[in-house]
Request: fold
Amino acid sequence: MEVLKTFTNPYSPYLLASTLVASIMSVITWRRRSAPGALPLFLMLITTILWAGAGVLLNESVNSESRYYWFNFLLFGSLMGTPAFWAFGVQYTGRDHWLTRRNILLVSIIPILSLLLGWTARYHDLFYKVFDFGTRLPNGQWNLVPGIMYWVYVAYSYSVMIFTVGILAQAFSQSAGEYRSQAGVILAGTLIPFIGNIVYTFLLGMGNGGIDPTPLLFTVMGVFYAYGLFRHRLFDMAPIARHMLIETMQDGVILIDARNRVVDVNPSALRWLGWNQHSPIGRDMEEILGDWYNQITIFPTNLYIETEVHTTDKPERYFDLRVEPLTDKKQMMTGRLIVFRDITRQKMAEKAFRDAHDRMRLHLKEIELLQEELREQSIRDPLTGLFNRRYLEETFERELARAIREETTLSVCMADIDNFKSFNDRHGHKAGDLVLKTLAEIFTTHSRAADVVCRYGGEEFLILMPGADLDTTARRAEDWRSIFEQSRIEFDGEILSTTLSLGVAVFPHQGRTSDEVIKLADEALYLSKHGGKNKVSVARPWANNPM
Reply:
């Protein structure tokens, strides 16, 4: 197949320029193919290279067979650019979820069918009624008259292009700053070959010898894209599409207008709200929000709201809900933006923390009670429940210090059960324990709250009486002795009884220290024991007492 070294068609240099520009752009685009829209644009530029390049070779071929051969390549480039352009617009605007095999196949069916009909056009008149590469028209073009399937493809092609231009225009209107400039360059570059093809098809007239400017205008589109590449960092700074921000958000997002109708909603919101009906767009806000509606409408619509809501279904979930009013430039209410975030895990963590805190407080309380119990056990006599000698030693010094500070008295009464050993030998230790508990009960029942009653050891007891003088102490000791003597203790069918001897001493009259007072009370007890028992004796005056 012979190709002339010089151009015989004045249109060929422009087609060659388009081929070169598209080739350069395709190399640059391939290097940035990971950016949104770059790979479909690369494929679109490849179809442009085939379209324009095959056009040069077709115009410069010297026989009809070679022209038919190169026309097949031209036809492939001109027809398959449409689905590539659709894929570019879809991916650049962030609608990657549309690029499914099914959608790509649907968009490509008519171009593929048209391509097959075009390649076999010499055998039918469906795509071209007249298909003649043997004779040039006066303007140097070939005699091609479109058939019915050609116009089917044109209708399909314009529909796809209008749709793609529409989503690019929407991306332009919704973008800001550098992204808006970038989208504007893409939109402008795209419109030029689109408008040129419309002019060629409907004004110059396909089949009337008109020159198709579309591949030439792809050169202009390449210039626009080159400007966008170097000036606005096209494919280096890809826009973040709406679906990346809204559709994939875990937070629920609902946009409502001034009349409380749902304008937009993302999948997360539908999932959290359990909406499984048809699209909620256009429905009243109350329908989609359910029980949450009342929690929102109690506030004025022009206020920013932040509250907490929860679902009543099981498992129960909690959400942080925010409602922000939307206004126009005149501060007129245009709608509200509702955003809610699942905070169930946070609430569960807070509840677990509170439960753990409550358990810890309960454990601390139990420990405190246990410590108190252990302390009680350490200062109490296990048999009688009275304070033990250890507690007496701690308390005596404290009460003595207070008596000195307040210049008052501190009395001590020591008591001992008479003949307790022989009592135990005769009746047994259980009977003796019962006697000890009975006496302990008498002491506690007939003592003041401030008195300290202790089991001093064995059958011996000591009662510490803050503020009591000698006469009072002696009278109370006599009361205890009399009550105990008259008590009757039933044990194993027997009525048991015994007596009590007591000795009394008072600080500071009969001792200046705890040891001295206890010693003098013990000596008084000794006097009672050796004076016939069952009696109360008062300690002798302290020899060194200046009073």
Notes: The radius of gyration is 54 Å.
